[in-house]
């Protein structure tokens, strides 16, 4: 059971708490989205790209680096959001008892959890913004269209934050997050049209890949950064929206079952 | 006027345990009320229901005359809670902890700043305001938790073992602060395992065991009622003692290695006779305390 009537704008106070805490470590947190794309570009562009040459995708011919650059942003969105509502939220919930403290204030559990999810999406969008700047500097992002990737990253972040929260409501110990990482995040990382078009997959696997939320973030990223796509923008936005709503609700249910005894 | 807390037949069941088993009590405005009981008695569970953390299985629970099921937000905004487990934000400084907690109550920034200054002063933490919480000692962290629970100027303060783990100095200081709050007319509900603390601070208290209330009353009345007022402890006694006390109808507990006699304060002759005749080796004669009442009522066996 969840109480949607218990959700008010007060949730932004919890979001703000996370922002302030993050403000203390932001320099470290900014390093990953700053450096990671450069490493990928070097490895894939100078190493793998030379062997692969060009990719036919969405009616265009792209160099391999151009093909994967937008996908790197999508992958970062997934990782940031999922990591935040799994490992980080678990630490706050279990080790720091932050939610217990908050529950002794006028905040509702739903507000606290929603704030965690929205915060995770915010972090994903911030990571996307930094990567857009870096990849833009290499000429892999067309501005101003590419800036729309920031709200798209927020939407994609909500989807993965919701899924992460469902797991946080279930896992008995923090080590067990390895399981969804291995069963859910890694396959998605590899098979969502990130490093090769999903048309390269066997027929039977293609619908599965299309069902991956990461696929839709990748599609949005390619469309917004370089104007090439195979799935319609509205389809991707619609899919991610529905996916987010469903998993945020499931996340709220899962956390209420875990915490309210 | 409505009592501040009104609890009737309150029950909480977890899967296979009944943690709280139909308790009823009320706390009046301005009262310092104690909730005592051994480990696992159901104190924390009761408190969690009180501030809306945990929904009751059965019974009614009103705070400020409001229903916790419906008007939880109003109730929670007027309560201050100091939980048993530390829930301070380790990533933040002392003053940030207060400021952010205040924001959850929608307290304006300036007001929060002013109150947090006052509270840090009141709890002797001003010199630590810029320290990270992780750098505080246990006693300081406890004081900060208490300060945090007062940031919303609550009409009811709920304290779950506020002094557990503190050294005697910190504990006395905490009592002093709690006493000051009591003098200001704050209504307080407190749990503690220190009977001395309950005896000094509480106007009235209940002793709970296995989720049920055993007794209710002021510390003084409970001591008079359940002990008589005096205690004589005799170690390594002879059978003659037992014959004597049974002949004189004296209440006692036989702990094998020790006898504990509960005698009336006004029976000086009797007390002297017992001491003269039977205090061979180790023997203590003292005023009865709440701890004697507690042990008599809840037994001396260890809890799981
Ligand atoms: N979430 C829970 N699930 C199952 N059982 C629980 C839960 N919380 C408490 N209990 C059980 O309920 C009983 C009362 O626990 P509670 O924490 O209220 O005791 P307490 O009086 O606060 O004890 P202490 O003095 O040790 O803090 C215990 O038997 C405990 O194991
Ligand atoms: Mg307890």
Kindly summarize this structure in a few lines:
The complex is a heterodimer of chains A (about 260) and B (about 300). Chain A is mainly α and about 260 residues long.
Describe the largest sheet of chain A: 2 strands, antiparallel
Name the CATH class of the largest domain in chain B: Alpha Beta
Q: What structural category do the secondary elements of chain A indicate?
A: mainly alpha
Question: CATH topology of the largest domain in chain B, which one?
Answer: Rossmann fold
Mean pLDDT across the residues of chain A is: 92
Blueprint (SSEs and pairs):
The complex is a heterodimer of chains A (261) and B (304).
Chain A: H1 11-23, H2 26-52, E1 54-57, E2 60-63, H3 64-95, H4 98-102, H5 109-137, H6 149-170, H7 178-191, H8 206-211, H9 213-226, H10 233-259
Antiparallel strand pairs in A: 1-2
Helix pairs in contact in A: 1-5, 2-3, 2-5, 3-5, 3-6, 3-9, 5-6, 5-10, 6-9, 6-10, 9-10
Chain B: E1 5-13, E2 18-27, E3 32-36, H1 43-50, E4 58-63, E5 66-67, H2 72-78, E6 79-82, H3 94-104, H4 109-122, H5 138-149, E7 156-160, H6 168-183, E8 187-191, H7 195-201, E9 204-209, E10 212-217, H8 219-227, E11 229-235, H9 239-247, E12 251-254, E13 258-264, H10 268-278, E14 283-287, H11 290-298
Parallel strand pairs in B: 3-8, 3-9, 6-7, 7-8
Antiparallel strand pairs in B: 1-2, 1-4, 4-5, 9-10, 11-13, 11-14, 12-13
Helix pairs in contact in B: 3-4, 8-11
């Amino acid at each position: 059971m969840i109480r949607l009537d218990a959700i008010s704008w007060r949730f932004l106070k919890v979001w703000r708490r996370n922002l302030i805490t993050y403000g203390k470590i932001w320099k470290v947190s900014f390093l990953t989205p700053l450096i990671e794309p450069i490493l990928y570009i070097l490895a894939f562009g100078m190493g793998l790209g030379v062997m692969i040459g060009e990719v036919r995708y969405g009616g265009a011919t792209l160099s391999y680096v151009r093909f994967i650059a937008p996908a790197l942003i999508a992958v970062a969105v997934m990782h940031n959001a999922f990591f935040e509502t799994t490992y980080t939220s678990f630490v706050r919930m279990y080790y720091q008892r932050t939610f217990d403290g908050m529950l002794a204030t006028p905040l509702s559990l739903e507000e606290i959890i929603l704030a965690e999810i929205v915060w995770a999406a915010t972090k994903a969008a911030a990571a996307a913004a930094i990567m857009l700047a870096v990849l833009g500097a290499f000429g892999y992002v067309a501005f101003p269209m590419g800036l729309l990737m920031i709200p798209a990253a927020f939407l994609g972040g909500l989807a993965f934050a919701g899924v992460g929260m469902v797991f946080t409501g279930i896992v008995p110990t923090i080590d067990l997050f390895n399981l969804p990482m291995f069963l859910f995040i890694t396959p998605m990382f590899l098979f969502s049209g990130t490093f090769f078009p999903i048309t390269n997959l066997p027929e039977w696997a293609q619908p599965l890949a299309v069902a991956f939320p990461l696929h839709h973030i990748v599609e949005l990223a390619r469309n917004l950064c370089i104007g090439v796509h195979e799935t319609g923008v509205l389809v991707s936005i619609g899919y991610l929206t529905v996916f987010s709503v469903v998993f945020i609700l499931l996340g709220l249910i899962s956390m209420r079952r875990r915490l309210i005894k | 006027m409505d009592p501040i807390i009104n609890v009737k037949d309150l029950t909480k069941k977890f899967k296979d345990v009944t943690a709280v088993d139909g308790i009823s009590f009320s706390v009046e405005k301005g009262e310092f009320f104690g909730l005592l009981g051994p480990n696992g008695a159901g104190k924390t569970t009761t408190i969690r229901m009180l501030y809306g953390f945990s929904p009751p299985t059965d019974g009614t629970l009103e705070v400020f005359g409001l229903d916790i099921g419906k008007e939880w937000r109003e109730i929670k905004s007027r309560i201050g809670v100091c939980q048993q487990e530390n829930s301070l934000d380790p990533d933040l400084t002392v003053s940030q902890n207060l400021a952010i907690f205040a924001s959850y109550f929608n307290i304006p920034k300036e007001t929060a700043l002013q109150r947090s200054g006052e509270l840090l002063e009141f709890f002797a933490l001003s010199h630590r305001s810029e320290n990270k919480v992780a750098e505080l000692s246990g006693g300081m962290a406890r004081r900060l938790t208490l300060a945090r629970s007062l940031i919303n100027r609550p009409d009811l303060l709920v304290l779950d073992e506020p002094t557990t783990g503190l050294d005697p100095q910190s504990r006395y200081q905490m009592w002093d602060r709690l006493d000051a709050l009591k003098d200001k007319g704050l209504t307080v509900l407190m749990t503690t395992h220190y009977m001395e603390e309950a005896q000094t601070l509480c106007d009235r208290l209940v002793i709970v065991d296995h989720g049920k209330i055993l007794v209710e009353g002021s510390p003084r009345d409970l001591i008079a009622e359940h002990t008589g007022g005096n205690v004589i402890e005799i170690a390594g006694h002879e059978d003659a003692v037992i014959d004597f006390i049974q002949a004189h109808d004296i209440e006692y507990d036989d702990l094998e290695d020790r006898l504990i006699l509960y005698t009336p304060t006004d029976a000086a002759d009797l007390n002297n006779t017992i001491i003269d005749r039977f205090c061979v080796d180790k023997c203590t004669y003292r005023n009865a305390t709440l701890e004697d009442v507690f042990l008599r009522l809840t037994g001396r066996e260890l809890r799981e």
